[in-house]
Amino acid sequence: MPSKQKFDWKALENAAVDHVVSAVRRIRQTHPDEAVYGAMFHEFYGDGSVLYWPMVTIGTEEVLARAAADYGDDGEDLRWSGPDLSQCAEDHGFEPGDEQDQWATRCAEFAQATAEGSFSAWEAVHERFLHCFPRAARRARAQLLKEGLVDKRFIAVATDEAGDLVPLSLTRAQLLRHFPMYDEAERERARIAALPLEEQVAEVVAQAVRAVPPGPLLGEYDALARTLGEAAVPALLDVVAGRSAGEAWQASMLLAEINHSTPEVIGTLEATLRNTEANESERAWAASALARLDRMDLIAAHLSVLPTEVAARGLSAPYRSFRDRGKHHPLDYRPLETVLEQHPDIAPAVAEALAPGCGFCTLEAAEVVAAQQGLNSKWAFIREHARDVLEEFEQQ
Known about the structure:
- This protein has 20 helices and 6 strands.
- With 396 residues, the protein is mainly α.
- The longest helix has 29 residues, at 119-147.
């Protein structure tokens, strides 16, 4: 069985270096007149059971210009977008070879054996895997410079979805030159953190519910709102109730993720659920939030006047991947079974909302017993859901 002492991280990193160096050499052979400005690892993937080796794309000014023409802009937003550049010029994108795929497989097997059923332990190995690539990017650049295949303006980066690996791939000067938004984002995080709590809430919530033009932390405001927790609840309630500007459905979602249930929270969400003048999306997210806050009974109380889609989305919410965001109540099929017993006509719609492939919640160790109890449900789709989440848990 693999162990940490037996896994050769250095050899894996060497394979990553070779992936970049070989790709640049190939471009120099096939497109000798193109101006190579960078290389990027992209398309990282790991889900708790498998992980994939990323793709490498070589950026040249000529391919960037073609991509920019396709998009009708100056191209700077595309400069470090591996998927866009490789789509524009397929021969500039390099899938992992057999060696790289074998290393990814070995690392996944090592993670499984080391984790012993703990997702957090698996993630720790995955994080170590990811962090091999910024180091490989730096080493590949040094080797390519030594071989005279690139000039000093060339950089190599690992571009994961969260952007965490980009700063690790570069010097501070390179980061600010090629990715100035990182410095702006860091300044913005520090600025918000230094504000009094009331001002933090006002700024973060306004961004999270799309009430103002996007700020420099686009993509982070939801998490910041969740971190504010109970302090953000009154401002979110104002949005749901229409007293403040913003997307009401987004505010309902964040209330569920903060998971702070008070009579005012429940009353405001219930009013939105019943509001026939609200759009269906707003009502469905209110229903979902109520279900996640353990008030599925309120959906049942108004079932006769709710659109079927609204009711089904609400009743299925505690069992879909949506519930894994933020805080959540433990898995429990009993509230849903109670509603189904009282209103069996809604069962087909809920079954459709919980069809395989829709995205199920990720089971935690403390929820295994509840999932096992779901295997005995009279409702076939609940049994299937329980079986799937248990199988996924066992594979972690």
